[in-house]
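Supplementary Methods S3. Complex input for the iron/sulfur cluster-bound model.
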Amino acid sequence: MDQQKRYRTMNAFLRDRFGEKVFKVPLNAGFTCPNKDGTKGTGGCTFCSPSGSGDFAGEKEDSFDVQYQQVKTRLNQKWPNAKTIVYFQANTNTYGDVETLRTMYEAALSLDDDIVGIAIATRADALGEDVLDLLEALSTRTFVQVEIGLQSMHEKTARKINRGHDLKTFDQAIHALTSRGIFTAVHIINGFPWEDETMMLDTLRHVNNLGVDAIKIHMLHITKNTAMGAAYRREPFALLSLEDYVDITVKQLRRLHPDIVVQRVTGDAVKEDLLAPQWTLKKFVIMNEIDKTMRRLGAFQGDMLSK
Ligand code: SF4
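Predicted complex, serialized as structure tokens:
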């Protein structure tokens, strides 16, 4: 466990595994999303930006090499010996024929000798058998993380955010990945205005029971150019305060299985695009408040697992 933290961070997990600092380098491969193009749905998830939740990914017009070097050069100034994981972040990065995916993943993995793995963000309904076979084969020779957005276990929320698939589809995708030994990370979102604390804790407990490897916990961001942003501008609705978010997130961490790695306890939004809540821009304040609260309570990840 990270000395400074009372939960199991991804930073510590990767350092233990690879013996060095490891950072992710986002690559934009120009994928689209089946929940936007009509294959599974239209409009996308209501909180999702036109970039497909890849606001910090590179420019898709640039080659992988250009995108990669831009980030690596900058981060190497701080961590000169760091290893990297190439990160397909924007949109649905398994949405394509399997040979195209193979070519892209192999091209990314061969950019640099410092690359120790690949992280692939996707949807639960975009993992066919051929894609699973490809990911499994890759995972026998490099670290492969597949991350999928659940956001909430509640079907009511899935409908309201236009996620475009049910909980069973999500659970089956996770099972298909974990049974092949692929490292899985799940995104959840706190603060949907119709969800209370009990519902958010239910989502956390559901993740606990899935056998996933990692979790990313986010606060709901309301951003411009999203369906939720448009609704918020028409009629602003209540969002969690920083104090409420910290309180709920600490409760989740205390109920999170100790084996699950915590990749995030808050998300990033582009400042210019963020409508609310503005406190989410203070990422380090949020992380510090979570640490302070856990220390004050004498709390650790999983110490209330059965509660
Ligand atoms: S599945 Fe991901 S990329 Fe597609 S609309 Fe939802 S959040 Fe955006």
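The chain has a mean pLDDT of 95. The pocket of iron/sulfur cluster is lined by residues 33, 35-36, 44-45, 48, 52-53, 91-92, 123, 149 (CB under 6 Å).
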